[in-house]
């Protein structure tokens, strides 16, 4: 792994929080992700399932975590099952976790090789009444591929039909949404790497540069600072491309006078950051671009202030909509008649700002969190308003990552990344 080893105390704490919410005499199982094939012998780079990583720190394929807090013997309460490493594997694939190394990473003392899993699981099933299965219930999830976790659930239900079934996901949705201090440090590291990439970019951008050249500059800076790369597929959208919300082709030339919307950020140790900035290709905003830009910035700043314990996500978005409506009126993009006659289910402002303002962030860019429950301290949210004007050939979005504080102002993890017009223009023309 490119990242520095994470203190295993984080994963010990995470497991303790999870097992404290398990039913009596229950077992929970977590599987690694598959390595997904492309064709022939080609595969996609391995990306670990965030839940097993959150609970163990194990960051390799073909791994299983078993938690059984009421097991008859202490050594059975936490168990890891790993692909057995060998000299041959070390030569052809590189280092894999040994049992000793797995203890260092996870804090779990009982480590077996995978062939022993079914036998040991059978023994655990004879002492348990319930199994927690780990289904994907994220509100944005659309899963068409059968995952390793899904195959396990299918196998387990056929093998042990008499056991009760419980869900890990509701527990993890709540636990993962509130970050430990170590997690906040890792997210901050991802934000800091993102800052390095953005600062590298500002003097590089000039008329006729291509979107893919910008992407190359960013990935260079991210990887040289121990990131695996982008936390999500980067959006580098010049001119009218910015009005396509998930534009990812990144293959166009950037012309003088246009803006570039950059929704790009680094990961670090599987933790995400999520930044958006909008910059002028020529190094200077036009008067109109500046007016729209500052309107978006004001909405972002006002929205950020609302991120406090007890705030409800739905009401928060209603209030942000009111602020955006005022800004759009000031820009002449809508008028009072538009507001008076608006559809409550699709307010007038939605013509120019059609997406949400915030989402949870952490191990996943769109992280776990139950949106019907109030915000809590140490949750991390994005704040990302935008105004998109196809008729004028540009769109502007600005986005920072914010920690909800127990009291006082929310903490901006991207506070050092340039965002004011004057600073961006100065750095682009340095």
Automatic annotation (TrEMBL):
Keywords: Aminopeptidase, Hydrolase, Manganese, Metal-binding, Protease. The keyword Plastid does not apply. One of its GO terms (molecular function) is aminopeptidase activity. Its cofactor is Mn(2+). Residues 6-142 form the Aminopeptidase P N-terminal domain. It comes from the Bacteria. Gene3D superfamilies: Creatinase/methionine aminopeptidase superfamily, Creatinase/prolidase N-terminal domain. Pfam families: AMP_N, Peptidase_M24. The keyword RNA-binding does not apply. Its EC number is 3.4.11.9. It catalyses: Release of any N-terminal amino acid, including proline, that is linked to proline, even from a dipeptide or tripeptide. PANTHER family: XAA-PRO AMINOPEPTIDASE 3. Belongs to the peptidase M24B family. This is Xaa-Pro aminopeptidase.
């Amino acid at each position: 792994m490119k990242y520095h080893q994470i203190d295993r105390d984080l994963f010990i704490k995470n497991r303790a929080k999870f097992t404290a919410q398990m039913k009596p005499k229950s077992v929970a199982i977590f599987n690694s992700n598959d390595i997904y094939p492309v064709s022939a012998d080609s595969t996609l780079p391995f990306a670990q399932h965030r839940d097993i990583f959150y609970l163990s720190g194990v960051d390799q394929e073909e791994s299983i975590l078993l938690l059984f807090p009421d097991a008859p013997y202490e050594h059975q309460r936490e168990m890891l099952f790993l692909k057995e490493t060998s000299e041959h594997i070390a030569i052809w694939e590189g280092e894999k976790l040994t049992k000793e190394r797995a203890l260092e990473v996870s804090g779990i003392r009982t480590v077996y090789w995978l062939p022993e899993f079914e036998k040991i699981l059978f023994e655990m099933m004879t002492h348990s009444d319930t199994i927690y299965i780990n289904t994907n219930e994220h509100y944005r999830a659309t899963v068409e591929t059968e995952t390793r976790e899904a195959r396990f659930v299918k196998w387990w239900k056929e093998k042990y039909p008499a056991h009760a079934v419980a869900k890990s996901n509701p527990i993890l949705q709540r636990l993962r949404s509130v970050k430990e201090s170590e997690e906040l440090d890792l997210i901050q590291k991802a934000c800091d790497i993102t800052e390095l990439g953005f600062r590298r970019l500002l003097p590089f951008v000039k008329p006729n540069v291509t979107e893919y050249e910008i992407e190359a500059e960013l990935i260079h800076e991210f990887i040289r600072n121990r990131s695996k790369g982008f936390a999500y597929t980067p959006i580098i959208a010049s001119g009218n491309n910015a009005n396509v919300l998930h534009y990812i082709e990144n293959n166009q030339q950037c012309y003088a006078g246009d803006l570039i919307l950059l929704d790009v950020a680094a990961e670090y140790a599987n933790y995400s950051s999520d930044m958006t900035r909008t910059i002028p290709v020529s190094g200077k905003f036009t008067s109109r671009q500046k007016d729209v830009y500052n309107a978006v910035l004001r909405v972002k700043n006002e929205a950020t202030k609302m991120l406090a314990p007890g705030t409800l996500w739905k009401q928060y978005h209603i209030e942000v909509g009111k602020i955006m409506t005022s800004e759009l009126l000031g820009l002449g993009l809508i008028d009072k008649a538009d507001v008076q006659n608006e559809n409550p289910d699709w307010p007038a402002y939605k013509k120019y700002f059609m997406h949400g303002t915030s989402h949870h962030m952490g191990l996943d860019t769109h992280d776990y969190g139950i949106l019907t429950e109030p915000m809590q301290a140490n949750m991390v949210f994005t704040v990302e308003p935008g105004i998109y004007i196809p008729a004028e050939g540009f769109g502007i979005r600005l986005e920072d990552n914010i920690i909800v504080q127990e009291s006082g102002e929310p903490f901006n993890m991207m506070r050092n990344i340039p965002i004011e017009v004057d600073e961006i223009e100065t750095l682009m023309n340095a």
